[in-house]
Amino acid sequence: MRFNAALVPLRWRVFLATSTTVTLLFGLAGWALEHYLLSVADDSARAEIQTSIRAYEAIWKARTQVLLATTAVMGAMSDVRAAFQTRDEETIRDSAQELWSRVSDQSAVFLVLDPEGRLISSLGENPSDLSPATIPVKEVVSRFPHQLSGYLRAQGNLFYVVLTPVYVQGSIGPLLLNMLCAGFRIDDRVGRELKALAPGSDFAFLDNHRVFASTLDRQMLTGLPAFLQTGLDSSGTRLWRDRFVVSHRTLEGIAGGPVAQLGILYSYENVRDSLSKLRRVVALAWIFTVISALIISSYMTRRLLAPVNLLGKAASAVAAGNYQYRVPVLGTDELSRFADTFNHMCESIERAQAERIRQEQMNTIARLATSLVHDLRNPLAAIYGGAEMLVDGNVPPEQTRRIAGTIHRASERVQALLRDLVNVSRGERGETELCRLRDLIDAAVDSTVGPNSRVTVEVAVDAGCEVLAHRTRTERVFTNLLSNAIEAMPEGGHIYVEERSNNTYVDVLVRDTGPGIPPDIRNKVLRPFVTGKRSGLGLGLALSRQTMTDLGGDLFVVETGERGAC
After folding, report:
1. What is the spatial distance between Cα 110 and Cα 189, in angstroms, rounded to a whole number?
2. CATH numeric code, 430-566
3. Highest mean pLDDT: which range of 253-267, 372-386, 426-440
4. What local confidence, expressed as pLDDT, does residue 537 receive?
5. Which of 30, 48, 95, 217 has the CB geometry, 3.0–4.6 Å to 282, for a possible disulfide?
6. What residues contact 468, with CB distance under 8 A and at least 6 apart?
7. What does the pLDDT average to over 138-159?
8. What pLDDT is stored for residue 27 in this prediction?
9. Which residue, among 266, 151, 270, 251, has the nearest Cα to 203 in the 3D structure?
10. What's the sign of the alpha-carbon dihedral 117, 122, 124, 127?
11. Cis bond before residue 145 (omega within 30° of 0)
12. What is the DSSP annotation of 311-365?
């Protein structure tokens, strides 16, 4: 099914175009703003993640420096070294307590181990959580004498530890006296410290199986370890669960190699909220703009279409024949010039119409005069011929009476013709009456066929056949048909008048034995001013047909295939 835009009113087409344009513009603007906001959010997320990484590195560097410095100082102090040599737990605790108080606020754990990694003494918060058995002694000792730092998994927990070797001078060189292990457990408090420095991010310490510490609910982190194993993109980040931009850092163990990971998550919730607010604002702005645009376009369309509506009314008036209608010219714009041109057109049409009416009136008068001459010719000829015979004298009494009757009937036809002319001038067609068809035909025969005529007329019409007709006009029809047939047979001939009737119509055939109608005018002989005679006007058959159509019938030429016309 094809949509025809021309069926839609112009005002609604303007409304539709306006709303569509505004919608497209707002759609493009909203898409551009959303795309820009997402781009800014991505840049902000990456910048926030870099800030979080720097915060992590700053905290870890500070904590590591404290632990390294504290254990180095402990290992270098003579009284502490002497206490270490006693292998007495209480003595070691008393000598190291003062220095250890510097890091005790960090929930640190301090262990004194022998060269084989056995525990000698411990200080700090829950030192039992850090089991010496989890320390890879062989790998660590092989990397001495430097201080070591790194992550350590112990009893389901994650620790960050610093190992400092304590040496004594032996006979064959330095001997490992003790190992000082200082560290702290990675728990949610550490995550909160990181978040305090980078509030826009969340942190999670985890390995491939568990989460050790996090600033998020542990239920939200389900699946994050497996997700991090799939790797990151070229920017070092990935979108997780359509909510977080995730990056991570590998956490190296005390003996080397990865132990765990630090996941840094930047939430997109704020971005989503901003996008939702943006969409609402754009939607409200779109609604307001569309309504405003429709109101403005309605006003402007009404103003613009007012001259068009006036032109439409004027065109309807002109189409109805009111050529005096004029369109008010309200300005000098294109529509005003069009209205002025329309008014000039109406004036031209009015003048042309007046001239046409005048010409039609003159043509009507000419046709009426021609018709009058045509119809008066036969009765006047009868009157003239009869009067001429009476003037010559020597006319027998019987013939005198017959001639007088002919003159009388011809005079009656002239009076009837003039009476019809008066009726036509008054717009009257005359009244119809029930007439005997045979009487109408006999009257026409008497007025056209003289006593000395070489043409014989045979009438085969039922004497009781009656028709509803205008007597004088119908009689003139038969008179015209008989006169044409007689004129077409100057050497004599026969005319046959035959009636064929049914319950509704009566068909009358007038057929002669003359030369017939020329083929070149056969199809148009019933038109005005078409004739095959040299002196004819071509109005007789046209007027006769008009009479028959006025009475509800018709007059036409019949092709019989025989000689003559019918």
Report:
1. 19
2. 3.30.565.10
3. 253-267
4. 64
5. 30
6. 432, 433, 434, 435, 551
7. 86
8. 78
9. 266
10. positive
11. yes
12. HHHHHHHHHTT-TT-------SSHHHHHHHHHHHHHHHHHHHHHHHHHHHHHHHH
Distance CA 476, CA 216 (A): 118
pLDDT tops 70 at residue 541: yes
CA-wise closest residue to 254 among 117, 54, 121 = 117
pLDDT of 1 over the 50 cut: no
Element at 34 (helix H, strand E): helix 10-76
Query: Could you give the CA distance from residue 547 to residue 258 in angstroms, rounded to a whole number?
Result: 121
Which DSSP string corresponds to 486-506?
A: HHT-TT-EEEEEEEEE-SS-E
For the domain made up of 323-428, give the CATH fold.
Helix Hairpins (1.10.287)
CB 539 within 8 A of CB 525: no
Cβ-proximal residues to 292 (8 Å cutoff; 6+ apart), any chain: none
H/E stretch holding 421 reads helix 397-425
3-class secondary-structure state, position 511: strand
Per-residue pLDDT tens for 98-120?
666 655 555 678 888 888 888 88
DSSP 130: S
Q: Say how far apart CA 79 and CA 154 lie, in whole Å.
A: 31
CB 129 within 8 A of CB 185: yes
The token pair at 248 is 């991570």
Cα–Cα dist 542/529, whole Å: 8
Strand segments, DSSP code E, in 238-335 are 238-240, 244-252, 258-267
Q: Residue 536 corresponds to which tokens in the numbers above?
A: 């004819």
Query: Average pLDDT in the 60-73 region?
Result: 83
Over residues 135-145, the mean pLDDT reads: 85
Q: Which residues, at least 6 apart from 547, have a Cβ–Cβ distance to it below 8 Å?
A: 470, 473, 474, 476, 477
- d(Cα 446, Cα 209) in Å, to the nearest integer? 134
- Percentage of the chain with pLDDT > 70? 86
Which of the pair, 204 or 42, is modelled with greater confidence? 204
Rounded to 5, what percent of the chain is helix, strand, coil?
55, 20, 25
Q: Residue 256: what pLDDT?
A: 83
CA–CA gap between residue 443 and residue 457 (Å, rounded): 12
Query: What residues does each domain of the chain span?
Result: 323-428, 430-566
Q: For 222-258, what is each residue's pLDDT tens digit?
A: 777 777 766 655 555 655 556 677 888 889 988 888 8
In the predicted model, what is the mean pLDDT of residues 421-429?
A: 60
Q: What is the DSSP string of 195-218?
A: HHHSTTEEEEEE-SS-EEEESS-G
When the pLDDT of each residue in the chain is averaged and rounded to a whole number, the result is: 79
